[in-house]
Amino acid sequence: MEDDISIKDLFGMSCLHLACGRGHPDVVRNLLRHLGDHEPESALHEQVQAKDNRGWTPLHHACAHGQLAVCVALQEIMGGELEVLGRTERGLTGLHLACLNGHVGVVGWLLGVNGIKDLGGEGLSKLVDDENRSCLHAAAHGRHGDRSVQCVESLLLAGHEIEVQDSFGRTPLFYSAGRSEEGGAAISTALLASDASPNSIDNFERTVWHYWAGACDVESIRYALSRYQMTYSSEDVGSLLKEKDKRGGNLLHSACLAPSSEPSDLTEIIRLVEDYVSIHEKDNLGRTPLLCACSSANPNALEVFSEEGADLFALDVQNRNALLLLLHSLNSLPSWRGEGGGGGGGGY
């Protein structure tokens, strides 16, 4: 029987991995009970902790696919000896995977299991992968609407620190930014409501505002600005919104590079920040937001900034005007433009 269970496919997965990932708790119980009855106890532990080619154990598969009944079945058989903090080759735990995929029930179960519950808030925050990403980073990056928001809230309720940074200096708030069409705005709002700071600057000298603008996430910008204006002076707000990245671009430059920006969203962003950020400001290459729109062939941004009174005759450091940049951009566009997605503030 052990030989049958231990046989693996080309991906390194045994029948136990498959049963766990596909949600068959009765099969899991039968396999493990039969193994426990006919083989040494060490064989049982070996199969439950066996890893596939990615370093995933059967529990990792159950957590990633939201198979709560399977998780419970594994705990019934293994008791306190179930390794709930096992890591994949990338350093991900089952809790990371459940958070990333928005499996609220599994997240709640894991947070209540001995071995994770005993960590407390500080220990939970230090549960990071190979790129120093915490479980809250994973939950904030989720693309599952209300379920991802609930995962975020569950972690915060368990005491998870909200400002933990990954290897790129990004907090969980960065991971929710840049994905307004995938529920990122709701996650950003939940984090901001729990006092996540929009002040942080990542290793690329970008603020979360750059990423919000780059996705034309009007909802997050509006909500963050309303909270920030209640707490800080106008000078402090202006200083934050004027922050430039390594290329010298502010949030309006980022907005012009957004591939799917709608004119109404761009206009709203300009209105929200017009008291703090000028549409005439240039980056390190001498480009105004309008010139950025031309260099990225963004017709909506070009239309909006033209209507807002941007200087159509501004020149970059190479003395190129808007028309030259637009022609150069159109001439160099690949035929498959538009099939790729824009980058967010952090990802998996």
TrEMBL record:
Respond yes or no to whether keyword Repeat is given for this record. yes
Per its UniProt record, what Pfam families does this chain match? Ank, Ank_2, Ank_3
Keywords noted in UniProt: ANK repeat, Repeat
Q: Which InterPro entries match?
A: Ankyrin_rpt (IPR002110), Ankyrin_rpt-contain_sf (IPR036770)
Q: Does the keyword Glycosyltransferase apply?
A: no
Source domain of life is Eukaryota
**Name of the protein:** Uncharacterized protein
List the source organism.
Paramoeba aestuarina
